[in-house]
Amino acid sequence: SDFPGQRSLASIEALGARFLIVHRSNPAITPPNRELLTKLAGPNGRLEVVKEFGDDVIYRLKAGNQFEPLKALIPPGSEVFIGDDKNGKSLYTAAVALLLGPDHRYFSTYRTIYKPQVESAQLGKVYGYAILYKNTSPISFGYQASNLIWENEVIQIYKKS
After folding, report:
1. How confident is the model over 80-136, as pLDDT tens digits?
2. Sheet with 19-23: strands ordered across
3. For 5-121, where are the E strands, in sequence order?
4. Global pTM?
5. Nearest to 99 by CA among 156, 40, 15, 158
6. Sorting pLDDT into bands at 50, 70 and 90, what band is 68?
7. Which is deepest, 23, 55, 106, 116, by most CB within 10 Å?
């Protein structure tokens, strides 16, 4: 729903897509979204125009590096709890797990076809790390506010003390 925002681009990248077809005549592609697409296709942007066909554009999605600092914070083999988006069942946390890579064990209270290797979380267990959406209380998952180790505009990462 935030396309072409960073949240949607991270989700698209994590799902393995490398190309996007955008129908600029779609009412969802508002003038501000068109401006953002132009910016994203500019120098140092996440998109590269491959071909234009009238109102349709094929973009190549460039790899992002916004999660590189996070990869260094969660050691390989760590158990990571993936929180759910109570407001919309967003794919963002599953995308973050895919971008972090297969060197971790992931747990969640929900299943998704986009991350089938996520194991069912045990009720009451506090995992080494938790990926939670902003405005989600870490206390209900066994973490304190002081356990926060990383955040962006969408999620927060907590480390068990």
Report:
1. 998 876 655 566 677 777 778 888 999 988 766 656 678 889 999 999 999 998 888
2. 19-23, 56-61, 47-53
3. 19-23, 47-53, 56-61, 79-82, 105-108, 119-120
4. 0.70
5. 15
6. confident
7. 106
- Read off the amino acid at residue 136: T
Q: How many beta carbons lie within 10 A of that of residue 124, not counting itself?
A: 7
Contact 121, 108 (CB under 8 A): yes
Pure H helices in 43-130: 68-73, 92-100
User: Quick check: helix, strand or coil at residue 43?
Assistant: coil
Question: Which residues are within 8 A (CB) of 33 and not within 5 positions of it... i.e. 6 or more apart?
Answer: 3, 4
Confidence of residue 2 (pLDDT cuts 50, 70, 90): confident
Q: What share of the chain is helix, strand, coil (3-state, %, to 5)?
A: 25, 25, 50
The Cα–Cα gap between 150 and 74 comes to 10
pLDDT tens-digit map of 129-154: 999 988 889 999 999 999 999 988 77
Tracing tokens 């979204």 back to the chain, one arrives at 33
